[in-house]
Amino acid sequence: MTVPRQPSSPDSPGTPEPDRDGGKARKTEDRSHMIRRRWLTAIIIVLLIGVPAGYLVISANQSRNSGRDKEDKYSATGLTAGWPSKVQRRLYEVPVQPYSDEVAYYETNNWRTSRLYVQFLTSNEGLERFLKQIGTVEGALKPNDITISKRDQKVVGWEFTGPGPWSGLTHEQDDPKPTQDVVVDRSNAEHPMVYVVSTTTP
């Protein structure tokens, strides 16, 4: 007597699985193929998430290091890297222009006078707006006129000895409004460096 052949378990690897639509049967996925597929999926997820995150971390570290470099550079001269507060800019009438770079400042106060030292790199249009906002014009800048005194240069470590061309002006106002001494370095024709000392007398 012949024993009927028992069907294989449907859970056995390689067993054809009937197509729900009544078509040809297809083989189930074997274990090794399933493991490879899962590993591949995991690797793709890591690449999609991990690589951009890594770039963000690197970019943040570079930005942080750049900020520390500026702080170290300016702290040696007494300057603080960054923008003066809105109150300082208003009191001393030093409107640092939007999108300026290499911004740094330093403030001194005593019973007789207060001074705000500010530097910033701007565009030609930014320089023109800055001068207009403090109440003067670009035509008032005199070639080779270093209007910031040696004493004030020494306070913050400014040295106006580069190739330039340099120009400057003094915008005087009646007390208690501030008087601004401005020096401009145009060694970069498109982006002038502006140095300001604004002095107030209560």
Please name the defining characteristics of this protein.
202 residues; single chain; seven-stranded antiparallel beta sheet; alpha+beta
Number of strands: 9
The major β-sheet equals: 7 strands, antiparallel
Please compute the radius of gyration using only Cα atoms: 35 Å
Question: Which stretches are poorly predicted, pLDDT < 50 over at least 5 residues?
Answer: 7-14
| Class computed from helices, strands and strand pairing | alpha+beta
What is the strand and helix layout of this fold?
Blueprint: E1 16-17, E2 26-27, H1 31-75, E3 80-81, H2 86-91, E4 101-109, E5 114-121, H3 124-134, E6 142-143, H4 150-156, E7 166-171, E8 179-185, E9 193-200
Antiparallel strand pairs: 1-2, 3-4, 4-5, 5-9, 6-7, 7-8, 8-9
Protein architecture, described:
This protein is an alpha+beta fold. Helices cover 34% and strands 23% of the residues. The chain is built from four helices and nine strands. It has helices at 31-75, 86-91, 124-134, 150-156, and strands at residues 16-17, 26-27, 80-81, 101-109, 114-121, 142-143, 166-171, 179-185, 193-200. Strand 7 (166-171) and strand 8 (179-185) form a beta hairpin. The protein is elongated, with a radius of gyration of 35 Å.
